[in-house]
Amino acid sequence: RADAPGALHAASQAQPNIALVKYWGKRDTVLNLPAVGSISITLDSLWTRTEVRFVPGQKHDQVSLNGRSDEAESRRITACLDLLRQRAGVDYGAEVSSQNNFPTAAGLASSASGFAALVHAGAQALGLTLSLAEQSVLARRCSGSAARSIFGGYVEWAHGKLADGTDSVASPLLDAQAWPLRVAVAITSKAAKQVGSSEGMRRTAQTSPYQSAWVDTQEADLDTARAAILARDFDALAQISEYSCLKMHALAMAAQPGLLYWNGATVECMHRVRALRQQGVPVFFTVDAGPQLKAVCAPAAIEQVKDALRDIPGVLDVLDTGLGEGARAMPA
Ligand code: 2P0
């Protein structure tokens, strides 16, 4: 439709990322600073597309997510837009419309792609010229893992040392094309998860007896994964990624009440992936705060991996994606 006079309008796309060395826990909940650094891969064919239109004179934000409004999500989006409004020195509301081409809130990091796209589009709409690092810092404040989706390929989000959080920022390790692994995502439930990540992390830090061991061992895992990525050493990346995934879940399971993000099919998928690897297929698994299993594999193995996962009772669907680029502008 025609722009209202003075409306400031832009659209951006970002993709979800999957952590191979996991983020779990916060050292500062206001600035959203992580207890640990993390390393991820940004995906390509799953996306969030977000359009933002600031309207001078409008008091409130109007938010539509996949054609619907959601009060809790709208509050998070307003809080994120407030950071951009502060930077730009404006105080008016926006119309936000966002679409995902994959299921929301089921452990597929919709908040990562969603807030990366929102920060990118919002900054463009307000005419803010922000570096990618500055966009990553703002995206981090909106949702931790969104810091990583500003960039494509293999990405590290640093723990950072500064109290103001300006160095807790993501940066690229390796381009997607430099090591084009593929990812099969086994969907084992389409329901929204019962305990969101922020609440899960809070509960874990407060009650899991493994929290300090988790924090103490993360630097070594990051070193190992970074070296495996730079050497394109699949077996080394497989070992460290499954280790970090299982360690994160063990940490969270030991919270009170324990966080159990898996269902039976998730576990069957883990066994199947390990059986494939024992047969010589280059594949490993990772699982986030939800029941989907992500199998990362060499390009030549993708059909075999998808077939094996599809075969497992309880697997509803298997998506397939490569690695992709960071957040970018779309025609508005
Ligand atoms: C990760 N997860 O590294 C970890 C592994 C899920 C499991 O980042 O509270 O939505 O917005 O900073 O980024 C999901 O948590 O949490 C997540 P907030 P976020 O991908």
What features would you describe in this structure?
- The protein has 332 residues and is α+β, with helices and mostly antiparallel strands.
- The chain has 2 domains: 8-176, Ribosomal Protein S5, domain 2 (2-Layer Sandwich), CATH 3.30.230; 182-321, 2-Layer Sandwich (Alpha-Beta Plaits), CATH 3.30.70.890.
- It has 9 helices and 15 strands.
- It has helices at 71-88, 110-125, 132-142, 146-149, 197-207, 211-230, 234-253, 264-278, 302-310; strands at 8-14, 17-21, 26-28, 33-34, 38-42, 48-54, 62-65, 94-100, 154-157, 170-174, 182-187, 283-287, 293-297, 317-321, 328-330.
- It has a 5-stranded mixed sheet with strand order 7-8-6-1-15. A 4-stranded antiparallel sheet has the order 2-5-9-10.
- Helix 1 packs parallel to helix 2 (110-125), helix 2 packs across helix 3 and helix 6 runs antiparallel to helix 7 (234-253).
- The radius of gyration is 19 Å and the shape is globular.
- 50% of the residues are buried.
- The mean pLDDT is 95.
Task: Please provide a brief summary of the model.
With 332 residues, the chain is α+β, with helices and mostly antiparallel strands. The chain has helices at 71-88, 110-125, 132-142, 146-149, 197-207, 211-230, 234-253, 264-278, 302-310, and strands at residues 8-14, 17-21, 26-28, 33-34, 38-42, 48-54, 62-65, 94-100, 154-157, 170-174, 182-187, 283-287, 293-297, 317-321, 328-330.
